[in-house]
Structures are given as structure tokens and as C-alpha cells.
Amino acid sequence: MTGDRIQESVDPDLDVTDVTTAPPRPRAAGQLPIVVAVSLGGGLGAAARYGVTLAWPTTAGSFPWAIWSVNVAGCALLGVVLVLVTEVRDAHRLLRPFLGTGVLGGFTTFSTYAVDAQALVQAGRPGLALTSAAATLVAALASVWLAVTATRAVSRRVRGSRRQGEAGA
What we know:
Layout: H1 28-55, H2 65-88, H3 95-107, H4 110-122, H5 126-168
């Protein structure tokens, strides 16, 4: 707390330079481009997920491989995107909300994974439901960590190669 005022967290996509004098909530009109970017990206991501489930349907009582794969791949892609747009390059302010929150938020689905686990319990497969829930959580966290680590390592290597090339020129 600063003085009598509680400091609120500020979304890094907003152009607020001084949080102590800025209004606590941005005006709605300033948020419209972000809302549109997230909405358009979310629609694309959800359509892509739906396409995966059509191409790779899950039979009743079996492990939901399509949704598991969507969540693991989506988490890995989110790790890559966030490193690239927050640490490697200056990106347009709408790129992170469009790709991260929108496309990959719409693509990944932890609600469907919960519904799939519930369906497995109802099908008399509680062990498989628990396995599915735990495997999704562990694999999703591992994939985002590995993707962030690998993207940072590749980025350092690329920057090092560029510096060597510039020094030799």
C-alpha cells in the first residue's frame, strides 16, 4: 500500500507509465483493441481444438488423447510465445493478447479435460480418470517449462551467433 491508496496490478499490455497517478481502471474504449484481439484469437484457437477432436475422436471410456495432446502442445506453444514476445523481441502490444490469451487460451481447454475425467468416472473408470487428470497437469507444466527453457537457450545462442558475426564483419 502506498499512502492511503492500494496499488492494483496493471496488465502489461496497457500503456500505463505511472501506476501511482494513473486511474485504477483503464477506460473501456482503450481496452477495445485488446478485447477484439483476444476474441478473434480465441475463436481461432477454439476452432483449431474442435478440428483436432473431430480428427482424433475419443471413444467412451478411453484415455482422452486428443484433449491431452491439445493441452500439452498448447502449453508448450504458450511458453514459446511468451518468451518471444516478452524477452526476445519488442512485439506489437496486441500480439500477446491475440496469441497467448486468445489463440492458445481458446486452443487449450482445462474445462474439457475435467469433463473428460468426469465421463471416465461415470463410465466406471476412476483410475483412468485420475491418471488422465494427473497426466494432463504434469505434462502441461513440464511442457511449458521445457518450452520456456529451450526457447531461452535458443534465443541466447542466436544472439551470441549474431554478436560473433557482427564482430567478425
